[in-house]
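Example 3.2
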Amino acid sequence: MTDPGKEVTEREWRPNQTTHQGSPPRDPWTLILGILGGVLLGTGVTFAILGSIGVFEEPTPPTLPPPPVLTIPPPAGPAPTLGDTVTVAAVAQRVIPSTVFIEISGFLLGASGSGVIYGTDGYIITNHHVVEGAGSVAVVFADGARYPARVVGTDPLTDLAVLSVDREDLSPIDLGTSANLVIGEPAIAVGSPLGLDGGPTVTSGIVSAINRTLEVTRGEPLYGLVQTDAPIAPGSSGGALVDAGARLIGITTAIAVSDVGAEGLGFAVPVDIVVGVVNDLIRSGEVAHARLGIEGSTAWADRGDAEYPAGVGVSGIPDDSAFEAAGGQINDVIVEIAGVRVSTLDDLLAVLRLFRAGQTTPVRILRADADTTLDVVLGRLSP
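Structure, written as tokens:
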């Protein structure tokens, strides 16, 4: 009888001992060498396949993903409506979208300033001294958008300039008036001092004085300025000075500085002058400033032991004088122009900044004991 265990063993081994039916069994060493050869052959085939698909080639450096498609965030929405209780925060939220940062570059020049959006046609108001000598100008809006700008025109006499940008979704500033400003009323300055990142800077104070004259080192004196104690730092030039209703009352232009630093006195070109100059620059690129055609000085009146400024005494009349053509004479005292009281020569020059060559304006004078009004067709001030 066949041993069952041996039969099972033979059956298990038989498939490995025979390559073809009826072939004699191989010896163990042949079997071992065959297995090793198969393994090596399989490995070689595997390497060949892997090599053909590039597994053993030098790996290609990973390519960086393309930059993301950037989208501009939508506008923050309309400015809030000022409530019955006006706060600096409410005014700031209203004015900040209307204020811009201005970057200047040129030959040996790198500077910055501030500006105010004027209307919805892409115009920006700033100072003449901010863009003077600029090779290129860029405007950065409160939402961070940066646009190239071109200079439409500048006016050194009032230190104003107009830029233009190609942008439609603008938030123009609301315009006020400087004609009825009251000393002590709130004044808020919005600008971009020192080129600091993060948007405009807001400071608050009061209207400290009106109708100031300021001698500046860069050109002619500035007349009729609004003075404020709202801190104004370098770089804020061209920014907005607004009232408690967030309405523009002036374009900041200068600060008072002594040996110990800023004196807390800032000055702004009054908005009534700004609007006239800016509109002229937009229309023609220049301003036809009015010329009365007199030489004079402040006239003083005695009252007891005191003296008071009483008008402008005419001491000389140059060629092509509009004043003389209307009947004015030497020794006349000018006391009023277009209904505006004139007590000093600075008063007269400030009022004239509101007029243009060719306009006719009533000029009230005192001559001897007579009180006379002349209708003067104003001449043009030479640039």
